[in-house]
Amino acid sequence: MGSLIALGECMVELSPAGEGLYRRGFAGDTFNTAWYARRLLPPDWTVAYGTCVGTDALSDQMLAFMAGEGIDTAAVRRLPDRTVGLYMISLTAGERSFSYWRGQSAARALADDPDALEAALRNRDFIHFSGISLAILTPSARDRLCAAIAQARAAGARVVFDTNLRPRLWEGEAAMRAGLTLGAAVADIVLPSFDEEAALFGDTNPDETLARYRALGAGLVVVKQGAGPVMIWDRDAGRAEFTPKPVARVLDTTAAGDSFAAGLIAGLACGMAVDTAARAGIRLAAQVIQAPGALVPGIFGQAARG
Ligand code: ADP
Fold first, then answer.
1. Taking residues 276-302, what's their average pLDDT?
2. Does ligand 1 have an atom closer than 6 angstroms to the CB of 250?
């Protein structure tokens, strides 16, 4: 029995469903992780999502979707003057591209009510957030969010930070470096991707990425490299490395990292050793990238449903 909250922005997803038609879904990095974690964790675990939405019909539909998927929405704040963000997927000769409308989304107010934030983070076993959760906030709201997370961590929560770099969401490279460093400094577990870290911090190999986050105080750092080896440093178990089994037909890598994080977190929450939990994350991500979309219900049997 336990409790996990993921924090950030869930968006409306419009994906192509025939000429001029779109299917409406809901997705977003930390929300995807919560969705996968819900399916992996035992039913007596609470999996909550922390964000802000509007009071309009679309926001109602998003909350109904979350609740229908078993996600606790008690920590979602509702703002009468805003609504949820949206992205649309375009397919051009089989290649996916994304257009976003999220500049004014309600989720940007995530850290604007300190009491609500503190209540949302209280008594959690795991808190999950990402570079995107920070990027959508103002610099002072980033500080507030990280201070609240640090306080919950001091009270016993294990904090997971998925770096998820999105340069277009930040004010600039310096702000992105500062924001990621701020987030990682309040985390126990940091989940960077090497290609992104190399581009932003100039790391020349994954060990430099591991060392940088280790120096910020994380007890577990897992550096991902797509199909390449997953490099792990754990304060107790030391250094390990696992190469994902090759996937013959990669269809859509959306949510590879998000599902990896869910597999790892759920494994740790269930008492697995770090290497076993990491392998569970790798296996889940391999299944997710063989199917279209961020959320892939088909890979779970009924019995696996939390
Ligand atoms: P992110 O989505 O956070 O950038 P990655 O793209 O590195 O992260 O992918 C996360 C995990 O998903 C990898 O560590 C790996 O386990 C799995 N994965 C991603 N791409 C592939 C691939 N082409 N083949 C096999 N596994 C993959």
1. 92
2. yes
Q: Identify whether the C-beta of residue 120 lies closer than 8 Å to the C-beta of residue 112.
A: no
**Residues 301, 11, 9, 44: what is their CA dihedral angle, to the nearest 10 degrees?**
-20
CA 39 to CA 127: how far, in whole Å?
A: 17
Atom 20 of ligand 1, nearest CA residue: 226
Ligand 1 pocket residue status of 52, Cβ below 6 Å? no
Q: Where in the chain are the domains?
A: 2-299
For the cut 90, the answer to whether the pLDDT of residue 144 exceeds it is: yes
Beta strand extents in 64-142 (DSSP E only): 77-78, 86-92, 95-101, 126-130
Q: 157-185: per-residue pLDDT in tens?
A: 999 999 999 999 999 999 999 999 999 99
Domain 2-299 grouped into CATH 3.40.1190.20 = yes
Classify 189 as helix, strand or coil.
strand
The DSSP symbol for 56 reads: S
CA 193 to centroid of ligand 1, rounded, Å? 9
Query: In this predicted structure, what is the pLDDT of residue 92?
Result: 85
Q: Which residue, judged by its Cα, is nearest atom 7 of ligand 1?
A: 226
For residue 66, what is the DSSP state?
H
pTM of the full predicted structure? 0.97
Closest Cα to atom 24 of ligand 1:
227
